[in-house]
Amino acid sequence: MENQDQTFEVMRACLLAGKIMLQSGAETYRVEDTMSRMASAFGIDKTHSYVTPTGIIFSVEGVGPERTKLVRISDRTTDLRKVAMVNSVSRKISSGEVGLEEACRLLGELEQANLTFSFYLQLAAAAIASGCFTIMFQGSWLDFIPSMAAGGIGYFLVVYFHRIVPVKFFAEFLSSFFIGMVSFFFVKFGLGQELDKIIIGSVMPLVPGLLITNAVRDLMAGHLVSGLSKGAEALLTAFAIGSGIAAILSFL
Amino acid sequence: MIYIEQLVTSFIASAAFGIIFNAPKESLIKCGVSGMIGWIVYFALDINGFGTIFATLMASFLIAVVSQVFAKAYRTPIIIFSVAGIIPLVPGGLAYDAMRNFVENDYSIAIALAAKASMISGAIAVGLVFSEVINQVIRRSSLGPVK
Lengths: 252, 147
Prior knowledge:
Chain A is mainly alpha-helical.
């Protein structure tokens, strides 16, 4: 009986680790690998997992009847630090440094923890990145400040709109629309030089870079469902950004 | 001079993307380095007439190699380094031009630009995959001869 309880605990820990990783933007392959490694470190060798961007199915062949659990992933963010931390917890479990109880406690703390950089720091990073991208795309230094402002406003709006409108693509559409408008007024009032360079630079923080990379890696690892759905999400985001800008350009 | 300008801005932009993606604090510099290496290769090849697609391919391959080295050395997931590096290569400018031509009803130019943008996205993917395949081949072959 005690053995069955332990199997349940192991499943709980594995699913918790998988859930945190998937919500923080890890690749499907890494989630499956981490869960099966953790289970085998706790003495359960036969596990099967099926991971998609919206849910995890995890089944264990242990003592007694085979058990399967399902976890639904409803919202996903990008928090690579959590991915790295779960990864190091699972390394410690594999090397035997951390036992089952300790692992459950650590993962539970990780799930609750808020490890992100402060919003204002991220806003500043987005603004600086936008300015730098304008220079990288052969814009002039005169456009550095305008694209910093437009990029910062765009990033602020995408976070803000996402909070009030749950549809992600609509938030991206609206904020790229505002980026286009702000850039247009900068050029119109003589604060910026080239409209194209300012818009391209300030749209960059919205580009779905993590999705593109993960989609490719998932597809290559044979996770066709996850790869295709992440690719579709990336494509939709790109489309939302593009149509927001196009809406502005059509007024010019 | 222009190379220094590009080196500095690409380093800052990639590290800033590390902050946006909440990468661990100690890996921000490495994010910047992988992005800088990728971008400078892309820029140098592109400006010397090797073609945008080839330049993107080489740059994304190199970013993947550098990220793999970092991931192995610091025992952290590889995506932390590769994502920040890949961002500058995304054909935002071309996609923008394509969109602009669509809006202005120049469909033939727009389609050509859109096709080029999707070719570049493909080149990024191929570069990433290529380095992963090589990495796996090295790992397999170091395990001894396959029976």
